[in-house]
Each structure stands twice: as structure tokens, then as C-alpha cells.
Design goal:
The chain is mainly alpha-helical. The protein has seven helices and two strands. It has helices at 21-26, 47-56, 58-84, 87-102, 117-123, 128-140, 156-161, and strands spanning 145-147, 150-152. The chain has a two-stranded antiparallel sheet with strand order 1-2. Strand 1 and strand 2 form a beta hairpin. Helix 2 (47-56) crosses helix 3 (58-84) and helix 5 (117-123) packs across helix 6. The protein starts with 20 loop residues before the first helix and ends in a 6-residue tail after the last helix. The relative contact order is 0.12.
Length: 167
């Protein structure tokens, strides 16, 4: 939650992902919250157990360092995205992120997660109204098809052409 009370989505997690570990390593209070968008099973690891695993298990520690590196890269990309990319690019990249994280449903076109327009706006760091207008424009231009909370991507290459992911 930002200072102005606006929600900001920092990342999505999928089964097997670890959340909240950075705060444990820094020995600080967790500053964010997590909201499930579908049914989940949560495994709580006690702080002492986690830190003991970091101290005693080289492989585990290396994996945590890799996660921190991935988080840092994502944060850097977000900063660049907010300062240099258009809303269209940020929305397109958000959809690509969702495809990469959750994949498609069996039809091979529908992103396998349902998000509200508000969630998409928060992910792309824009207003809900701007997200709705941009998604509608992207639909008219053939990048996507909208069906309530479902988003179909009939041509992934065309969607990618609306991003700067490979520039």
C-alpha cells in the first residue's frame, strides 16, 4: 500500500514460491501483505528454522541468494518500466508476466489466472480507468480478447510486439 492508500502489486507467487524471506534475512518487519486470488495452501516456516537452514545448508542459502537476485532484477526492471515505458507497454508486459507465471488454460490462449481490472492496473502501476481504456484499445487492435476477468491472447508474438522486453 502506497502512502496515498493506493494498492501496488509487487509480485505474483505460484505454488512452491517463498514469500517474506527478505524481511527475515534483514531481521525487519514484513512491509507488504499477501492476498490469495485463488485457493491456496500455505506452509509457515518459523523464523528460527529458516535462519538455521540458511546458516547450515549451503544449497538452500544459494537458492535464497538466487531468489534475492531475481527480486532485485525485477525491482530494477520495474523502476525502468515506470519511468520510461508507456501504459500500453506496461500493460502488455504485465500480461506477458502473467503468462510466464501461470501459463495458459487448456485452450492455449486464455491466461490461467483471473484478475480484476483493478489488479491489472495495480500491476502495471496505472489507474483502473486507464487500464480499462488500454485493454479495450488492445482488444480493438487485436492484441487480446476480453471475456469478463479472462484475457485471451490469440497471438503471443503480436502481444510481445507491444512490449520492450526484447529491445
Amino acid at each position: 500500500m502506497g502512502k496515498d492508500g493506493k494498492e501496488q502489486i509487487l509480485r505474483f507467487s505460484k505454488p512452491g514460491d517463498i514469500i517474506g524471506y527478505r524481511s527475515l534475512l534483514n531481521q525487519e518487519a514484513y512491509q507488504a501483505s499477501a492476498t490469495a486470488i485463488e485457493d491456496v495452501y500455505v506452509c509457515l516456516i518459523l523464523k528460527e528454522t529458516f535462519l538455521d537452514m540458511v546458516d547450515k545448508n549451503h544449497s538452500f542459502s544459494k537458492n535464497i541468494i538466487n531468489l534475492l537476485g531475481d527480486d532485485l532484477r525485477s525491482a530494477e526492471e520495474s523502476i525502468v518500466g515506470l519511468s520510461q515505458k508507456s501504459v500500453h507497454e506496461r500493460i502488455a508486459e504485465s500480461l506477458v508476466l502473467l503468462i510466464n507465471k501461470y501459463g495458459y488454460k487448456k485452450d492455449g490462449e486464455t491466461i490461467n489466472v483471473k484478475l480484476s481490472r483493478s489488479d491489472i492496473a495495480n500491476l502495471a502501476a496505472t489507474t483502473q480507468e486507464t487500464a480499462i481504456r488500454t485493454l479495450s484499445k488492445m482488444e480493438k487492435e487485436g492484441y487480446i480478447m476480453l471475456n469478463k476477468k479472462e484475457i485471451l491472447v490469440p497471438n503471443f508474438k503480436k502481444l510481445m510486439s507491444g512490449t520492450t522486453l526484447f529491445d
